[in-house]
Amino acid sequence: KDTYQITLLPGDGIGPEIMASCKEVLGALTKRCGFTLEMKEALIGGVAIDEAGDPFPDESLEQCLKSDSVLLSCIGGYKWDSNPRELRPESGLLKMRKSMGLFANLRPAKVLTQLIDASTLKREVVEGVDVMVVRELTGDVYFGTPKGIDVIDGKRVGYNNMIYDETEIERIARVAAEVEASIHITGDRATCCRAYGDVASKRGGKLCSVDKANVLDVSQLWRDVVTDVITKEFPDVKLSHMYVDNAAMQLIRWPKQFDTMVTGNIFGDILSDEASMLVGSLGMLPSASIGESGPGVFEPCHGSAPDIAGEDKANPLALILSAAMMLRYDLDRAEEADIVERAVEAVLDQGLRTADIKQEGDGCKLVGCIEMGKAVAEIVSTIDI
Ligand code: NAD
Ligand code: IPM
Ligand code: MN
Q1: What is d(CA 308, CA 313) in angstroms, rounded to the nearest whole number?
Q2: What are the C-alpha distances in Å from 155 to residues 71, 145, 146, 150, 152?
Q3: What spacing in Å lies between the alpha carbon of 1 and ligand 1's midpoint?
Q4: 159 assigned to active site
Q5: Which class would CATH give 1-100+294-385?
Q6: What is the pTM of this model?
Q7: Which ligand is nearest to the Cα of residue 303, counting in written order?
Q8: How many CB atoms lie within 10 A of CB 112?
């Protein structure tokens, strides 16, 4: 296959800026490698509320579902923060994940040697860190019911429900183990799982499941089910368990103890942002959101960064690295993914830095989002493979 339909979701804030840079890179890549990405934009987030009255309109869902893959920037902004829940950009993102069945979110935090000093942590702590956070994405307190803010006995009461059923835990445990164990799978996800295999062969076979089983019943079920799945189906994977409070501390204390981590939706949200500071910036962290079958959505871990939107200051590399994950996992184009990832490293070798990864006195050149995108695209066109 050499033509793919890709839906682009530029979203809000810095979203359109980083998407423009990413398109430069993909343009250079397709030209060089002789395949075609038919890219078509769709609405999500605040811009979709403004233009279509819905943070994820049905037309966007239909277009995503009939694509080979989806690339998303980020959503959200102050403008919509006091809207009713169903008219918030974040609700569109959650609707997209749920309606596309994207239950697994892979968030790799790999420290690049060029950026060791961009981390606020000591060099010896972060050097060589390569953690994969596997975050469950369509369950937990994000989607549990009942939920709301009601008046009970004359007081306002806010509540959400942290809930998982065993099938949801089983399937995310399997994805995490596949990332870890290089198990061969067939079916719709074969391509993606071959990519897991790629990842896994470089990983160490250690899986740490993170929960709060000392307090929460839902976490006790999580721990029991993860233990069952791993011991029965993946006897080669070395499984350990950790409470989330300790895990948050251990990630900063000595992150090299971790290989793959698997956890629920909200703990994974928090721990992956934390892990981004090992790498140096949230602007460097890509992710892949995937399901059992159908297109995945490839999205940076960061948000719409309203504090720097429209100023050409955003780091486009998290989105560009997410596009590399798309090439690898959804389009079965591992070589092309390698080109993009190596071009990102090469641009850092050249000393180009957006503000979020620039250190005072590092001798590097401060560039904006546009220049960073152009530089990566240029290298993609010329780099030897
Ligand atoms: P954020 O991730 O947008 O920003 C946090 C900090 O990181 C900010 O200082 C920002 O400038 C910086 N940052 C983030 N991405 C960057 C990049 N690519 N380059 C340089 N700096 C970058 O989180 P927030 O400020 O808590 O949230 C802002 C909005 O984004 C909210 O509406 C929130 O709901 C939304 N959000 C969306 C997503 C998503 O689309 N997946 C993720 C997180 C937050
Ligand atoms: C993320 C974001 C989203 C989440 C929000 C914006 C709904 O923080 O993608 O990490 O919590 O999943
Ligand atoms: Mn988040």
Answers
A1: 6
A2: 43, 20, 18, 8, 5
A3: 36
A4: no
A5: alpha beta
A6: 0.95
A7: 1
A8: 17
| Phi, psi for residue 181 in degrees, rounded to 5 | -110, -5
Residues with Cβ within 8 Å of 140's Cβ and at least 6 positions away in sequence, in order, are 162, 163, 164, 264, 265, 266
* Rounded distance between C-alpha atoms, residue 181 and residue 183, angstroms: 5
Q: Where are the domains of the chain?
A: 1-100+294-385, 108-133+162-280
Q: Could you tell me the distance, in angstroms and rounded to a whole number, from the CA of residue 300 to the centre of ligand 3?
A: 9
Asked if 37 contacts 30 with a C-beta cutoff of 8 angstroms, the reply is yes
pLDDT, one tens digit per residue, over 301-328 is 999 999 999 999 999 999 999 999 999 8
For a mutational test of ligand 1's pocket, the pick from 74, 142, 277, 366, i.e. the residue with the most ligand atoms closer than 8 A to its C-beta, is 74
Dihedrals φ, ψ of 301, to 5°?
Answer: -80, -20
Whether 117 sits among the annotated catalytic residues: the reply is no
Reported ipTM: 0.99
Strands 130-136 and 104-110: antiparallel
Pocket of ligand 1 (CB under 6 A): 14, 74-77, 90, 93, 282-283, 299, 302-308, 314-315, 318, 356
Task: State both tokens at 322.
Answer: 């997410």
Contact 238, 289 (CB under 8 A): no
CA 168 to chain centre: 19
Atom of ligand 1 nearest to the CA of 14: 18
- Give the amino acid at 251: L
189-22-6 Cα angle (round to 5): 40
Per DSSP bridges, beta strands 3-11 and 36-41 are parallel
How far CA 318 is from CA of 30, 109, 142, 286, 297, in Å, comes to: 20, 11, 24, 5, 14
- Select from 304, 315, 319 the residue to mutate for testing ligand 1; criterion: most ligand atoms less than 8 Å from CB: 304
**42-90: per-residue pLDDT in tens?**
999 999 999 999 999 999 999 999 999 999 999 999 999 999 999 999 9
DSSP-assigned letters across all residues of 282-306: GGG---EEE-SSS--EE--SS---T
Domain 108-133+162-280: give its CATH code: 3.40.718.10
- Residues 285 and 236: their CA atoms lie apart, in Å, by 29
